[in-house]
Design brief:
Oligomer: heterodimer
CATH architecture of the domain at 8-192 in chain A: 2-Layer Sandwich
CATH topology of chain B: Cell Cycle, Spindle Assembly Checkpoint Protein, Chain A
Number of helices of chain A: 21
Number of helices of chain B: 5
Radius of gyration of chain B: 21 Å
Distance between the termini of chain A: 125 Å
CATH class of the domain at 8-192 in chain A: Alpha Beta
Largest sheet of chain A: 5 strands, antiparallel
Family (chain A): Belongs to the ATG13 family. Metazoan subfamily.
Strand content of chain B: 25-35%
Strand content of chain A: 5-15%
InterPro entries (chain A): ATG13, Atg13_N, HORMA_dom_sf
Number of domains of chain B: 1
Protein name (chain A): Autophagy-related protein 13
Order of helices and strands of chain A: HHHHEEHHEEEHHHHHHHHHHHHHHH
Helix content of chain B: 25-40%
GO cellular component, one term (chain A): phagophore assembly site
Main location (chain A): cytoplasm
Helix content of chain A: 40-55%
């Protein structure tokens, strides 16, 4: 093995460098998620703690955590080291956002590389890349918006294979960088969540609130009150709304709710899948089924969905503006952060948006004049307009006059008729005979 | 020797030019700057520590990291704003390219100037767009932010390929590799240059306008 060729001193150095690489990487990751802008000063004279010629502060708490898991003497044997970043709401819901992982690929090694010089400098570059990349993942923007009354960002350092299953569907994986050593290739990578939706079971109680029909009256809405109290993250609100929205979608405003009345054997309906059939169904069946309630519920759901979308996309902005002043650099960035978040949450709404095309269809039954449109059409078909012939009925005198005229005309043309008959009749006797 | 060359293409609004370019070049320079060298004796030197700071963009939904060196930032800002002004001065949608070139010097015989040999070039090609509504701006600041994220990831990828960089020099040759004029950091020698295609178009347009006007006034 290549490791055997490595001198004792080199091996010792490599191990020490790797250990500090792991410790500093953990510091960089955690510090980038504190929600504050980092600023470290250049130093002309490096001190003992300034590893890799990069001014990285050492937070004692993080150092303790990292050292705890890296307790072994051989750092390279302790890899992979993972730093997990998650979000925790005031309600106690958690969502894992990303997992950073420093691992060692033992198959790819470079025995020729110099430890003290090349490896050390490359570790420095790797950490610089880490500093730059930590500002690029979605969790960075979230972390800048955290607060004790909305959500906080938490971290967990562990040794072992990275756990990605909590990152939700469609998470992304990015390699920050790697470097070859005589014992293998050190690789730093991150896997991050792309769908910022808290799973529904956590927000079950919120959904019940959402379903209240008075929810969207601004003065009564408990949710809006909450938000005012705790200039809380609109991001979160957007997420919660997303959750409840997806749930309402699952309920199936058109399909599921309207289908139960359908099976009772209305074979007249030719197109059960067409949304319009659901418009007709409750009407036709309402007397026997006693389901006139169906309509108001549907309508409520529709208007709600519409409002939710608006909340998710637009309302975060005012809140953010109020938070702007408190932002340290006072520019518009936080607003954009939230916007991007709402954008991301609206991405997760993709399926919902498809359904929203149907919102146009709500007009026939949602509006107050719903019956007039459909009803008028129905009546028009049922009682067909009278033919124009019947509308222009001539008077009796006119009719009589007309008759005499006709008779006179027939009489005057008698000769012609006889002629025609004469032409026809000669054949008849011959045929019969 | 052929220099490595990377080109990034971005479509931005006029006011995003400075920040878009700065975020890319600062990230590159952060990777390509070392701590100040201090020579104890020939063959032995100590390296200072590079500090860094987060910079939030005003017109882009983005935060980048740069060396915490005011002088380096000033150098970059000066060059970039020259490019930005040239690009934005014309009315029509312009385009242009700004380059960050790393080079090393090679001593020449007196009286010739030392030769500059580039070894890495980073180009940013910008296409300007005009936006009319606030909504479009909002979409654009997010979009440019996302594009810059991709660029930063790509820069990290390139940096970790560990391709050629000039060898560490002796004390006497330090100035041939590094820019030692900064008090706090020591970047590899670099220079910035730009070209814009916008103004030439406009000047042609202006000439045509002038010609037509003159013809009409006759």
């Amino acid at each position: 093995m290549a490791a055997v060729k490595l001198g004792i001193q080199d091996k010792k150095d490599l191990d020490k460098f790797t250990k500090f690489l792991a410790l500093k990487a953990a510091q960089i990751i955690v510090q980038s998620r504190l929600g504050e802008k980092v600023h470290t000063k250049c130093k002309p004279h490096s001190s003992g703690t300034d590893w890799f010629n990069l001014a990285i502060k050492d937070l004692p708490e993080v150092l303790t955590e990292a050292k705890k898991v890296l307790c072994g003497e051989v750092a390279t044997a302790q890899l992979p080291l993972c730093v997990e970043i998650s979000l925790r709401t005031v309600e106690g819901d958690t969502m894992m956002l990303e997992t950073w992982c420093l691992g060692m690929l033992p198959d790819q090694c470079d025995p020729s590389v110099r430890i003290t010089y090349t490896v050390y400098n490359r570790m420095s570059i790797l950490l610089k890349s880490l500093v730059s990349v930590t500002r690029c993942t979605p969790a960075y923007k979230l972390s800048r918006r955290q607060g004790p009354d909305s959500f906080v960002i938490c971290y967990r350092i562990y040794v072992g294979e990275p756990q990605f299953h909590n990152l939700g569907e469609g998470y992304s994986q990015v390699r920050v960088g790697q470097l070859s050593t005589p014992v293998g290739t050190l690789q730093l990578s991150v896997a991050y969540r792309t769908k910022m939706t808290i799973s529904p079971q956590h927000t079950g109680r919120d959904t019940s609130i959402m379903l209240k029909s008075d929810h969207f009256r601004p003065d009564l809405s408990p949710r809006i009150v909450t938000r005012k109290e705790s200039v809380s993250s609109s991001v979160l609100i957007a997420e919660e709304n997303t959750t409840s929205l997806s749930e309402t979608i699952k309920v199936g405003a058109f399909a599921d709710n309207s289908r139960p009345p359908a099976p009772p054997g209305d074979s007249d309906l030719v197109f059960p899948d067409v949304p319009f059939s659901s418009l007709l169904l409750p009407k036709q069946q309402s007397p026997p089924q006693g389901s006139p309630l169906q309509m108001p519920i549907l309508t409520a759901q529709f208007s709600k969905q519409e409002t939710i979308t608006n909340t998710a996309i637009n309302t975060p902005l005012p809140d953010d503006n109020s938070e702007l002043s408190s932002d340290s650099n006072g520019n518009v960035t936080p607003r954009a952060i939230s916007a991007s978040n709402s954008r991301r949450s609206s991405c997760s709404l993709a399926s919902a948006n498809e359904d929203f095309i149907m919102v146009d269809l709500k007009t026939p039954f949602a509006g107050s004049n719903a019956n007039s449109d459909l009803g008028a059409f129905y009546r028009e078909c049922q009682s067909a307009p009278p033919l124009r012939t019947f509308q222009e009925v001539p008077t009796l005198a006119q009719q009589v006059e007309d008759l005499t005229e006709q008779l006179e005309a027939f009489e005057s043309n008698m000769a012609a008729y006889d002629e025609v008959l004469g032409q026809l009749c000669p054949h008849l006797p011959t045929d019969t005979n | 020797m052929n220099a490595r060359s990377q080109t990034f293409e971005l479509t931005v609004e006029g006011r995003q030019v400075d920040e878009a370019v700065a975020s890319i070049f600062h990230t590159v320079l952060f990777h390509r700057s070392l701590g100040k060298f201090r020579y104890k004796q020939e063959g032995s030197y100590s390296v200072g520590t590079v500090g860094y700071e987060d910079v939030d963009c005003d017109f882009i939904d983005f935060t980048y990291v740069c060396c915490s060196s005011e002088n380096l930032d000033q150098t970059l800002k000066r060059e970039i704003s020259g490019f930005s002004e040239a690009l934005r001065c014309n009315d029509g949608p312009g385009s242009g390219q700004i380059s960050l070139e790393f080079f090393q010097k090679k001593k020449n015989r007196w009286p010739f100037q030392p030769e500059c040999i580039p070894w890495e070039v980073w180009n940013v090609r910008l296409e300007l767009i005009k936006l009319t509504t606030e909504h479009e701006r909002q979409v654009c600041r997010e979009k440019v932010g996302d594009m810059l994220t991709d660029k930063i990831l790509y820069i990290a990828e390139i940096m970790n390929r560990h391709e050629y960089v000039p060898k560490m020099p002796n004390q006497s040759e330090l100035d041939l590799i590094f820019d030692t004029t900064y008090p706090d950091v020591q970047p590899y020698l670099f220079k910035l240059s730009f070209t814009t295609s916008g103004p030439t178009n406009t000047s042609v347009g202006m000439t045509m306008k002038k010609l037509i006007k003159e013809t009409l006034s006759l």
